[in-house]
Amino acid sequence: METAALVAPITGLELFQDRFLLTGEGPVLSVYSLLPRPNVGASLSVLQHYRIHGIRVRSRDTVPTQSSTVSENNSASTSSFYDLAIFGGKAVRLVRLHLECQDVETLRLEALGPLLELRDWALDVRWLSSDKQFLLCVALAHNAALLLDSTTGSALVHCSCLEGCLLYSALLLVHDSWADTVLVGGTVFNQIIIWKPARGDEMINAGHKASIECRLLGHSGVIFSISYLQENGYLASASDDRSIRIWGVGTLGGPGGKCGDPNPTCLRVLYGHQARVFSVRLSGRYAFSGGEDGACLVWDLIGGGKLIRTLKGHRAGGVRSLAVGRGTGDGDKWVATGGADGGVRLWKVGDGEEKKSLEEKLTDLKFPGPALPKVVCLVGGEEEKTYWSRFLVCTDRGTVFQYSSGSWETIWEGPAEFSSYCVMETVTVLVRNSDTLVTLCAVGNISGSIQVFPTSSPLSDVRLTGRPGKIHSVIWKKETDNLYLLASGAEGFVCRWCVEVEMSENSSLVLSVEPLSPFLLPLCSKRWLTAAICLRRHSNKVLWVCGDRRGSLLLFQEGENVELNKTDHEKLGEGLQRKEEEERDSAFRPLSCLFGVHGKHGVTSVCEYQGLLYSTGKDGCVRIFRTRREDGEFRLEVLRVQRACRGMEWLEKVFILESEIKTGEVPEDAIGEEPREVRFVIAGFHGVHFVVWDPVRQERLMAVSCGGGHRSWSLWPSHTRVWPGRGALVFIKQGAVLTSQPPGEMLGCAGDAGRTGGWSLRDGIHGRGIWCVCRLGRIEETGFDSQARTGSSKSYWEIVVTGGEDTSLAVLAINPVSGTIKVLSVLTDHISGVRTATAITRLQGETLSALVLSAGGRAQIQCNRLLVAWDRQRLAPSCQVIQVASHRLDAQWEKKRNRHKTVKMDPESRYMSIEVLQEETGCVLVALSCSDGALRLFSVNEGENQIDLLWETFYHQRCVLCVATCSLQDDKGNRSRLLLSAATDGNIAVWRLTESLSVPAQNSSGAAASPVPCLVIPAHQSGVNSLAVWVEKLGQQEDGCLVTVASGGDDGQLTVSTVRAQHPEDGELVGSRGFSQIGDERAAQDNPSNQFQVRLHSQFSIPLAHAASLTALKLLSPGLLVSTSSDQRVCLWRVSGTSISHNGALCSHVADATGLAVWEEEEKEVDEMMGFDAVLKETVDPVCKSSEEEETTDDPENPAEDGDISTASCEDRKKTTKVGWILVCGHGLQLLRLRNAGMDAETWQKKK
């Protein structure tokens, strides 16, 4: 077995020369080049099964070398190298980083010598600066120090402290020799101790231990990290008590090994983290701390220790490692953070910056009185991408002010009917037949009038008259060459005009307005328009998708038969009295309506990109939907719902990420005929903050303290619908006009990325534990560019779905060759942790279609359809999510009124395991095990978007941990299906299912009878966590089938039970409705030959298969099992006859392993195709070798193999070999490759 991809907590970081960043992820060392832009250079697995906790650099002079080959331009090549000491756990290893410069700078990592294993945990390692040899000082966890000759691996000196306590952290301060070394340790007793490992050879040789020179008291928790700054004699400590303490200790280390002041004092106690503080670094006037809350805080020590900046880019689980650079030439410092989610973020922190994080500093524009501002809008077009400087403000007296070049001016004063109430909206358009940009402003009043005027020429205004009554909203919409104005008035009428701007002969602006047929909103409360967008389809049909204040999405279509003539236009413009019936007949009514889909608080925006529509509302959801034509009519169809972060209910807009936009290219659908969903960010209000939220990375990109959502605001760059990485907000608060950035400031610069949201060198996946994993299949890279990048061989991406404790379901694409992992989508529909997931997959051309079922806490089931394909435009995998259905057992309780006044008697259940029983056209039957002791059967109807509970049984009377199923068929054609369930009592129940699965069995009285299992197998002393089942036919001489059931439990035991199942002789079953009933026993006694017989044939086990509870067990191939446990071992087991043999093992880098996915693939020319030089190899026990003869057997546990039909010739089949893949998940995930997995049991015995 060998590692192909790995995601684990980043536990080691080191910045050096402000050019390179070194990261430690598990045993893998990676180096990133920071200039000109951060990118990964090389990776190498160095510590085997240990996790990297520290990286120490020892530099050497650059050595110019003559190029071995003469290039055409006769360019010389230079090379330099840096020696690194990598440590973690009980291991230390030397690695050399080679930097080779010839046209392009390349990085290469080389391991120097073998792994050096110690007898104690290494907490810190330092190079001795004056020694030309490879001498290292090592701080050990049991309060000792070691002088190590890394070349030979021998310990030259070992010294212990007189106080033999356990250390949680240590800091070595070295100078020229061992005698100058000082050790600062953080003890388990919440203390910091300072002592010298070398106080004289006489004491060490005599067996004496070094005494403590100084002790620092004050923390109420263990010390996780220590940092020392020699410039001012500051010592910083980070603790479990959520605090950082700054101590004035004076001079530590240096010549003679000084131990600082005898009575040091605590200068600062810094509180700001919401959880434990894992790491702290001192640099200049700043202190940097990283905590379990996922934030890196920047403290100003000179300014009283105040918090000046928050760097937050990791999910739950926190910042596990932190590195700070010395400073670049422009005065900025690199700051790198590594998270428990496997992500790496890079930031820039300036020397003179004030309080500015994602929460920007506000600027007051000093709006002149005495009128109060009510509405604010930005003035600018798509061409103004970097600067913002102009705003329009409408007051409560109907006056419009313009802010430009730092001053306010009045551009329009409305008549008396505009003084009490008004709404305003602006748009920037091109003048017809000209390149001049002009901004139009529309102001509506309470009497139904709208004033439209250019801001540069307010006298060229036009008065429009809508339906009498209050104008609730005014909306501008641009569509190709047309500009539309919509005004939502009384009684649900939406008046529309087509507006054009022309230049007259005397160079003055002229507005021409053409009335259009109005829209009529359906009857409801709050009957006015809040959002609209115009769509033009290939059939030349003009569609309008609108959102109203009631939360509904409406679809309108313009028709020729209801177009008004000139006389009707004049009557409508003059506001003449018309009959109500004639008005309603002339208005367009919606073709399709999704009533109240966004809740009763209304829709806030609707936008369209590449065929998909995105709507936001005050229900905290973004709905992705599309228009679909059925039976000649257009309909709205919601594909999925994306929720923002918890507590963010007021959503305003959706912005497409700038990285998703390919300039100069025509967008194309990446998923067959299905439009492609792109990555977007959500803008809205979270409490008193205006927030821009990334739903995939689960992080804030911008936060402005504005006071909440009930105010007028405008966001740059809202006119482009694209999020460039930075934005600015202008809003009204308490009669003042405020901005988050000073007007006129350049925005969206690439150089500011590190100062705002930072660079994501690697995206995190799950911040907390991953509980389940399900493999969907693989997709192939297509297109000319993909073949050029990968050579002649094909490149594939494995698609998997993971669910975890953070309540999210992540869709991942894994490249086994490069080890790259991409997050395609993150589903946040679950309200509790995701315990289990399964999928039904099939290929539709080049698209992988999967019906994914996930379940977990709060008795919730989610069903989604995933469409995954290779995107030729972005050259990356792409995923479209379509939500099918959802189900909760206590859904009626959530709808009950005044439920807070009653007591809920039924405890909330958790779904522990899910298994697909039967797949039919449009309907899927699934079984779920529940924590309340129930075994439940559900039907999933994708066509009706519904999940129904068919029946449930409480036979186990305790928590049911897992379920499994298998199908039986004998030589006579008799078919049956078995369902197996296991609970915390260690018993496995075998149930028989038949064709009438969906009909619960009833007894003679008509009441539903309680089903009982056919067989109960005692397998373990405690809970059974996982089941693996496969079937073998006995042949014609013996009737029936042999079912092998492998189980793993909390007792660490692996048990294999063999069950013999036999159909009746005549093929007719007694009582064959659903499950075996209690009433069947009497009929079976009268006629035993007509009974379906299931009996235990044999049972054998390995008591200590793992050192801890066996958490997952899967069948890779018939007779070959894969198991994992919280002891971090992945084991292979060969089941043959009545014996179990250990086939191999590997120490995984994933802690608390809980999930497992396995599959097999047939591959040709494996060595060339997989690129073994790029695979991280591990030293493991020998496993099975190749077999020339392989037997193909149906694997019920591996549905991903269905449909893989080999069309190669017999000669080609001999060249193919089966490759097994194992994906382990827990606190991270690891993909393992197993060579020659297709060996059957007989060949394995011969090889042994």
TrEMBL record:
<keyword id="KW-0677">Repeat</keyword>
<feature type="region of interest" description="Disordered">
    <location>
        <begin position="1183"/>
        <end position="1214"/>
    </location>
</feature>
<keyword id="KW-0853">WD repeat</keyword>
<dbReference type="InterPro" id="IPR036322">
    <property type="entry name" value="WD40_repeat_dom_sf"/>
</dbReference>
<keyword id="KW-0819">tRNA processing</keyword>
<keyword id="KW-0963">Cytoplasm</keyword>
<feature type="repeat" description="WD">
    <location>
        <begin position="335"/>
        <end position="357"/>
    </location>
</feature>
<dbReference type="InterPro" id="IPR019775">
    <property type="entry name" value="WD40_repeat_CS"/>
</dbReference>
<protein>
    <recommendedName>
        <fullName>tRNA (34-2'-O)-methyltransferase regulator WDR6</fullName>
    </recommendedName>
</protein>
<dbReference type="Pfam" id="PF00400">
    <property type="entry name" value="WD40"/>
</dbReference>
<feature type="repeat" description="WD">
    <location>
        <begin position="216"/>
        <end position="247"/>
    </location>
</feature>
<comment type="subunit">
    <text>Interacts with FTSJ1; the interaction is direct, and required for 2'-O-methylation of position 34 in substrate tRNAs. Interacts with IRS4. Interacts with STK11/LKB1.</text>
</comment>
<feature type="repeat" description="WD">
    <location>
        <begin position="270"/>
        <end position="301"/>
    </location>
</feature>
<comment type="function">
    <text>Together with methyltransferase FTSJ1, methylates the 2'-O-ribose of nucleotides at position 34 of the tRNA anticodon loop of substrate tRNAs. Required for the correct positioning of the substrate tRNA for methylation. Required to suppress amino acid starvation-induced autophagy. Enhances the STK11/LKB1-induced cell growth suppression activity.</text>
</comment>
<dbReference type="InterPro" id="IPR051973">
    <property type="entry name" value="tRNA_Anticodon_Mtase-Reg"/>
</dbReference>
<dbReference type="InterPro" id="IPR001680">
    <property type="entry name" value="WD40_rpt"/>
</dbReference>
<dbReference type="GO" id="GO:0005737">
    <property type="term" value="C:cytoplasm"/>
</dbReference>
<comment type="similarity">
    <text>Belongs to the WD repeat WDR6 family.</text>
</comment>
<dbReference type="GO" id="GO:0030488">
    <property type="term" value="P:tRNA methylation"/>
</dbReference>
<feature type="compositionally biased region" description="Acidic residues">
    <location>
        <begin position="1188"/>
        <end position="1204"/>
    </location>
</feature>
<dbReference type="InterPro" id="IPR015943">
    <property type="entry name" value="WD40/YVTN_repeat-like_dom_sf"/>
</dbReference>
